[in-house]
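Hello again, I could really use a second opinion on something today. I owe you a coffee for this, so here goes:
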Amino acid sequence: MVRPIHLLYRVKHNFSQLIARIGETLRLTQSRRMQRQASNNADDTGLYCPPAVRTPSLQQLSQTAAKFNFELDEAELKQYQDVIREALASYHRVDKMTEPIPPVKWPRTPGWRPEPEDNPHNSWYWRTEISGASKGKLHGKTVAIKDTVAVAGVPMMTGSRVLEGYVPEYDATIVTRILDAGGIIKGKSVCEDLCLSGDSFTSVTGPVLNAHDSTRSAGGSSSGSATLLALDQVDMATGGDQGGSIRIPAAWSGVVGLKPTYGLVPYTGCFPAEITLDHVGPMARTVYDVALMLEVIAGYDNGLDPRQPANLTVPEYTSQLTGNLSGLRVGLLKEGFGNKSSEADVDGIVRAQAHRLTAAGATVEEVSIPIHYPDASHIYNVINEGVLETMVKGNGLGVGWKGFYPTSMLDAVSKGYRTRANDMAPTGKFVVLLYDSLTSQYGNRYYAKGQNLSRTLTHAYNEALSRYDVLILPTVPYKATKLPNKDISISELCRMALSFGQMSNVCPFNVTGHPAITINAGFSQGFPVGMMIAGRHFDDATVLKVADAYEKIRDSKI
């Protein structure tokens, strides 16, 4: 029989050994962790290198757990922290790898910010002089690049403090193609703050003034490109279009602007807003130059842009500008006229000018597509919720697609949102407040339903385009508006810059991806009136052909 005192001794002795073993285990575990961390922080020579990413603290993990409604105590969080620390090895390794970026082929200097006296309409953001090939389709043509399109070594701001100071190290694909074809890039044109305006007064560099009346809006968001063309400062320009941003300013400035078929022109290296709405395209004073530029910038980009089908072919658009429309059927889109925001003089001019196409052999008659107004714009508005996910939460790129991700731009946007978000224009804050408050309550239900309804909308246009070669309607239902004064309220600014009526004819074709061009149909009270011609997917040639035929009729005074 063991005496109690001896039993107590043995228990204490065994407990001490247990504690010692636990302590030793903890020391070994900590040592292994430190070795793993040191290994992660070492370069290939085994020397110390600062870590690429830090292990999340328990407080950070607790906040993440609460965000996703996980109920985890501190001990459980520590266990997750251990395995997370091990998972970070992939991040440290990927950080050391070199990622491929589009090549920069043509030499250039950074350029300069123009002085106010050299930029009276505020249409230039940055000036430079980049010459490309000594021959090519664009040889000698001067080009302005919208400031959403990356030009290596040249500042890129997208009209916003959020991206101020960013200088890309890569050329957008369309920039390389322009230079390869002999174009001369003269600088970056001003765009609206994060492109969230159909007017021309939200850029932090100041309002872009209409070339025909400096008290009026030039339209947006490609405001600088349109104004520079109207002022004859360049031969061609690039524009971006997520909801009319090529066609609105082109219409209000009296120039030509084409939103190509979705995916025809690669978006690679351009600042995205919403991947299913993003378009980039040519602007010029004549249809011929728009067609010529499209020949250069269109075409497949070897998988770098997920918007593009792989079987793209690019015809010689300019060779089809014959002026002969024999056998072509033109549908005047009934629902594009006579709406709540429509001005009678704009409707009248577009109707009358469209009927002049009969002189080139076309048949012109009215066609009804009831979903076009107002439902198409309502569908667009809920799909535009994707801007929050891509441009804001996704730091300008989002996730879930194959192609080129400009990581330097993503870093710049991410830092900009953290440090300069309060300097965003009211339009940007409105977009964030609207869509974040709704998605926090309803998820992305309405975005998803809008995308589903986009197929209904597309079918409606396709059905009409099975009977007509093109559709014609006013680009913007009313003439250029007055620029606001400095004491405009937030609510009025947002209503004006994001006007439902202003976008009602243009934004539906961003949803469906049909090509649409605007051309000046005349003037009313001294202001240009734009006529829009829309066509079948990847039949940009016919859209250009009709626009060119009208241009020839208009300019020959037939």
User: Anything to note?
Assistant: The mean pLDDT is 93. The longest strand covers residues 516-524. The radius of gyration is 29 Å.
